[in-house]
């Protein structure tokens, strides 16, 4: 969650390639775990709108992940560098192994990275709300479900999984002006249970015997060409990026005591092409411009199986099988810097979005009043901002921008149970949602000893795509997976107002001792279906952290505290109140998100040039807590050795 927005209103990119696809949903999602943290060189978090450069979805912010680059040899002969890492953590009995090898020649370089992690069931903290305890679970033996008492209610049964990551990158430097890069990423998880669905109750009994995601697989093939020129009228630098991605995911569920297991499988093929130019038109002015094309095709199927007889039959798929999502865009940005104190930058982008979704197959299961959910729409966005340094101490930043999110296939064509007793159905009458916002920032730097960052922002979201009650052929309820459910659909049916304040400070007491602290406050309301303003679902509680770090010679230490404010019952969005099983209960028995804090200590020691030892103790006071809107309790006291 970034600045009151989440999931498909945030953009994720890996090495410059957009990871968001046509079925990124509005609820919390886990695609980012496909990225191997051990192969990351650096990350870049852009707070606020980024649609001019990144297109649809970049409303609340952009998360850019850059993986390590192959390094060429600095000598004539082959140079080899390698790293080996092992890691263990107590709260999840985590066992991790990682190896990477870099081969460098004069013009060629190769980087290979392999990681494997295995997690057991996660243990929550000792001190906190009893509402989070896992007192019982469903055990199935010979096809018979039995509710079993948990021998340790702090152990969150069925949260363990494992993951494998592979990365291969090749670089070829043809000459000083021309370079080629190829990246191959692959990630696969085991089946991973959806814990929040396993702790739901129907009356006094657990609702589901099983609810899990099938193996989550992601492949990215990324080719880049970078060309520099000193005599072209069109560019000083040009970058061409072409990429192919394949996403695979599935959902498997079975109700308690039911013989019927349902499985819905999804696959997305995503192709993208980007052409980016940079050109200095004078000593003070620079332009950036480019073009982008995206194509996604979604494959979706559904099947139900009798676990006793193994008889199977087709059921409605989650998405229209064979549906496509396309985006074509052009952007232009201008940067003017007449001196070291003042910078002005502005930009504009146009996007055309086209969706084709054939609902004929699912209409054999549901009597929708239409057989397709096609869309062809466009969106303009723009941004303008200034940076001003009136003196050595002070820097002001002011920015105004617009952003958009075009409907995707998850919005237009999905059929799924959003919550117990509710089913979301397709809606072909959707338009892009727009965000308009401004930000004012101030940085104070006192001789590089004390620095303070302050920022405040405001965002207005219009034509917001939200889930609302709906009807099909005049009916407000339909039968879905054997349960009579209220009909809902994604609609352009709301407005939202989001605002916030962020502060950060850094104090250098000496060369060795530093203090850093950050704090963020976000607020916001949106219109419900009756026009009443209610809290926004993805506005997080106030949160922050404070670090005291010390470094000398071979030793680094970091003592820090993370803290999160409370969201009372009246501050929860209506959709969160409906998911009361995620939350603790207040004195009146109402759901709320309690405040929490953790005390933590990290250390690292360089034993030799080749050997580094890391020891971390997280949540030292063993707090039992859940981060806001999460279905799983966070780790209790956790010792990490690497």
Describe this structure in words.
- The protein has 642 residues and is an all-beta fold.
- It is built from four helices and 41 strands.
- The strands form six sheets. It has a 22-stranded antiparallel beta barrel.
- A hairpin with a 5-residue loop joins β21 and β22 (312-314).
- The relative contact order is 0.11.
Quote the average pLDDT.
93
Q: Quick one: biggest sheet? A: 22 strands, antiparallel, barrel
- Helical segment count: 4
Shape: globular
Identify low-pLDDT runs: none
Rg result: 26 Å
How far is the first residue's CA from the last residue's CA? 29 Å
Q: Assign the structural class, choosing from mainly alpha, mainly beta, alpha/beta, alpha+beta, or little secondary structure.
A: mainly beta
Relative strand content: over 45%
Helix content: under 10%
Number of strands: 41
Give the secondary structure arrangement, pairings included.
Elements: E1 10-14, E2 17-18, E3 40-47, H1 51-54, E4 61-67, E5 79-89, E6 94-104, E7 108-119, E8 122-123, E9 136-141, E10 144-149, E11 155-156, E12 161-175, E13 178-189, E14 192-193, H2 195-198, E15 201-202, E16 205-206, E17 208-213, E18 217-228, E19 237-255, E20 260-280, E21 285-306, E22 312-314, E23 323-339, E24 342-356, E25 375-388, E26 394-405, H3 409-413, E27 416-419, E28 422-424, E29 433-446, E30 450-469, E31 477-480, E32 483-508, E33 513-527, E34 533-535, E35 543-552, E36 555-564, H4 574-577, E37 584-585, E38 591-592, E39 596-606, E40 612-618, E41 638-641
Parallel strand pairs: 1-4, 28-32
Antiparallel strand pairs: 1-2, 3-4, 5-6, 5-41, 6-7, 7-12, 8-11, 9-10, 12-13, 13-18, 14-17, 15-16, 17-19, 18-19, 19-20, 20-21, 21-22, 21-23, 23-24, 24-25, 25-26, 26-29, 27-28, 29-30, 30-32, 31-32, 32-33, 33-34, 33-35, 35-36, 36-39, 37-38, 39-40, 40-41
């Amino acid at each position: 969650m970034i600045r009151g927005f989440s999931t498909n209103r945030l953009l994720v990119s890996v090495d410059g390639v957009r990871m968001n696809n046509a079925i990124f949903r509005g609820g919390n999602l886990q695609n980012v775990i496909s990225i191997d943290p051990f192969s990351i060189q650096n990350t870049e978090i852009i707070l606020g709108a980024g649609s001019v450069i990144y297109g649809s979805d970049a409303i609340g912010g952009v998360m850019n992940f850059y993986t390590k680059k192959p390094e060429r040899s600095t000598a004539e002969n082959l140079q080899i560098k390698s790293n080996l890492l092992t890691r263990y953590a107590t709260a999840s009995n985590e066992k991790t192994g990682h190896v990477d090898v870099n081969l460098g020649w004069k013009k060629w370089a190769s980087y290979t990275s392999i990681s494997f992690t295995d997690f057991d069931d996660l243990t929550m903290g000792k001190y906190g709300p009893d509402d989070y305890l896992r007192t019982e679970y469903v055990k199935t033996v010979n096809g018979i479900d039995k509710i079993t008492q948990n021998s340790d209610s702090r152990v969150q049964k069925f949260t363990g999984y494992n993951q494998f990551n592979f990365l291969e990158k090749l670089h070829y430097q043809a000459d000083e002006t021309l370079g080629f890069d190829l990246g191959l990423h692959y990630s696969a998880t085991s089946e991973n249970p959806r814990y929040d669905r396993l702790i739901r109750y129907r009356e006094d009994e657990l609702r589901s015997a099983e609810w899990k995601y099938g193996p989550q697989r992601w492949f990215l093939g990324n080719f880049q060409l970078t060309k520099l020129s000193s005599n072209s009228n069109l560019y000083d630098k040009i970058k061409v990026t072409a990429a192919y991605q394949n996403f695979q995911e599935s959902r498997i569920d079975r109700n308690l005591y039911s013989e019927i297991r349902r499985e819905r499988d999804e696959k997305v093929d995503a192709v993208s092409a980007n052409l980016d130019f940079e050109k200095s038109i004078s000593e003070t002015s620079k332009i950036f411009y480019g073009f982008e094309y995206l194509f996604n095709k979604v494959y979706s199927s559904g099947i139900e199986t009798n676990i006793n007889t193994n008889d199977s039959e087709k059921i409605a798929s989650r998405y229209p099988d064979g549906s496509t999502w396309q985006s074509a865009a052009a952007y232009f940005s201008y940067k003017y810097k007449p001196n070291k104190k003042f910078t002005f930058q502005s930009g504009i982008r146009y996007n055309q979005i086209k969706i084709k979704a054939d609902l004929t197959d699912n209409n054999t299961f549901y009597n929708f009043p239409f057989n397709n959910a096609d869309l062809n729409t466009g969106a303009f966005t723009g941004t303008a901002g200034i940076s001003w340094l009136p003196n050595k101490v002070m820097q002001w930043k002011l920015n105004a921008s617009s952003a958009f999110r075009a409907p995707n296939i998850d919005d237009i064509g999905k059929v799924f149970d959003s919550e117990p007793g509710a089913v979301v159905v397709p809606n072909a009458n959707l338009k892009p949602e727009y965000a308009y916002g401004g930000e004012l920032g101030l940085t104070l730097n006192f001789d590089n000893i004390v620095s303070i960052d302050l920022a405040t922002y405001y965002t207005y979201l219009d034509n917001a795509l939200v889930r609302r009650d709906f009807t099909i052929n005049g009916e407000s309820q339909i039968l879905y997976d054997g349960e009579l459910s209220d009909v809902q659909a994604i609609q352009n049916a709301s407005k939202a107002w989001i605002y916030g304040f962020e502060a950060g400070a850094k104090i250098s007491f000496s060369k060795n001792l530093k203090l850093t602290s950050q704090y963020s406050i976000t607020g916001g309301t949106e219109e419900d279906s009756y026009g009443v303003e209610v809290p926004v679902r993805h506005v997080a509680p106030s949160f922050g952290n404070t670090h005291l770090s010390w470094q000398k010679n071979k030793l680094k230490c970091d003592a820090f505290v993370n803290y999160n404010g409370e969201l009372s019952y009246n501050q929860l969005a209506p959709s969160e109140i409906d998911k009361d099983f995620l939350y603790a209960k207040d004195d009146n028995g109402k759901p709320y998100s309690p405040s929490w804090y953790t005390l933590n200590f990290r250390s690292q020691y360089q034993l030799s040039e080749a050997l580094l030892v890391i020891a971390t103790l997280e949540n030292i006071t063993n707090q039992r807590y859940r981060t806001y809107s999460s279905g799983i309790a966070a780790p209790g006291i956790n010792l990490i050795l690497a």
